[in-house]
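Box 3.1 A note on notation
Throughout this textbook, protein chains are presented in two layers. The first layer is the amino acid sequence; the second is a token string describing backbone geometry. Keep the layers aligned when reading.
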Amino acid sequence: MDPGGAIRASDADRDRIADILRDALAEGRLDAEEHSERIDAVYRAKTVGELEPIVRDLPASGRRSDDAAARVYDDGADPGGPAENLVAVFSSSTRKGRWRVGRRTNAFSLFGNIEIDLTEALYGQRLSVINATSIFGNVEVRVPENISLRGSGTGIFGNFEVVTLEAADPEAPVVVVNGYTIFGNVEAKPKRGRRISDLHDRLRKHLR
């Protein structure tokens, strides 16, 4: 028996494994169904020994490719910083305009409405993950048309919909929306006609 494997798993241990799974989803190593099944197993696990087999067939981290892409967006953002939390309880919360997207954003709506508009946002890393939970509420995510959008989730007497996008530019940001809804709505899709202008600038330079 491995004594280390019997150690009770902490929230940080589960987050570490979940991050590896999110990277694998963003890189196409897992499809949405496989990712959802493994995420469920992560949050059911009680010990470290139960967590490790979940990612045994995956790279320890996708950070190398993310770091290379981050140099393209170079904005000095700290990839290890805390997640941004958006909460709406019998209220509304909006994040839009020219704001800096972190590596992780948590959105929780209870009888409320949350709007996350990424069409004018600044991306400090290639992969950004939004964890959305809606209970009798609504979470809407809008992204530019020229990025990659992926995700997986569950709707229980509700709607969970992510419109998948695959950007033509391999350096384009990747947004992954995960979560679940109960008697509510979680929706992520492109905002027609909105594109990242600096991505166009990089493409023009590359074509010269």
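The longest helix spans residues 11-26. DSSP finds five helices and twelve strands in the chain.
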